[in-house]
Write a structure and sequence with these properties.
There is one protein chain. By secondary structure, the chain is mainly α. 63% of the residues lie in helices and 0% in strands. It is built from ten helices and no strands. The longest helix has 15 residues.
């Protein structure tokens, strides 16, 4: 026996506010992601209010109330990606995709030491360079280098890490202080 799917009721102002509040309560989000979510819900369900749906005003209210903070979201997302071993290029892409402004992205950009620690985390996790079996084959070395580059690490950092002679040397390289 098949059931007919009921079409959800069109959104009005109270329902739009409820959706926005439920979304920011459940997910860490940026203003742009919240706006995209609300616009998608409006496309799916329609608008049952006067004039245009006040999506931008709803997002601005959430920002003013402190429920949405792009800088805090960028710091948290950046830190999470760096701890997982992604490089700065991939972090910038992820933040840009989330609608974070360039000024905020540059404010939360990781220093050289943090970037080296991220490269070390990726190498340890994926068993690259000194953390894996010795890569004597050129094709294996190129695959390891490609993996580091896809993760967003600069070429010189990837080569430095993959050429480390031991785990201790790689950890010492990652712990070097930033040069100002």
């Amino acid at each position: 026996m098949t059931r007919d799917r009921r079409n959800p009721r069109p959104l009005d102002l109270p329902r739009l506010n409820e959706l926005a509040l439920a979304y920011v309560a459940r997910f860490a989000t940026s203003a742009a992601k919240l706006e995209g979510y609300l616009r998608r819900k409006l496309r799916e369900r329609g608008w049952d209010g006067d004039g245009e749906a006040p999506v931008q005003a709803t997002v601005e209210r959430m920002v003013a109330a402190g429920y949405v903070d792009d800088a805090q979201f960028a710091r948290a997302r950046s830190g999470s990606l760096l701890r997982r071993g992604y490089g700065q290029r991939r972090v910038d892409q992820a933040l840009g995709q989330a609608g974070i402004a360039e000024a905020v992205r540059s404010e939360v950009r990781a220093g050289a030491c943090e970037q080296r620690r991220a490269a070390l985390a990726l190498a340890r996790k994926r068993r690259l360079g000194p953390f894996g079996a010795p890569a004597t084959d050129r094709a294996v070395r190129e695959k390891q280098l490609a993996a580091m580059l896809r993760a967003g690490h600069p070429l010189d950092s990837a080569r430095e890490l993959l050429n480390a002679i031991s785990v201790e040397a790689a950890e010492q390289w990652a712990a070097e202080p930033d040069e100002e």
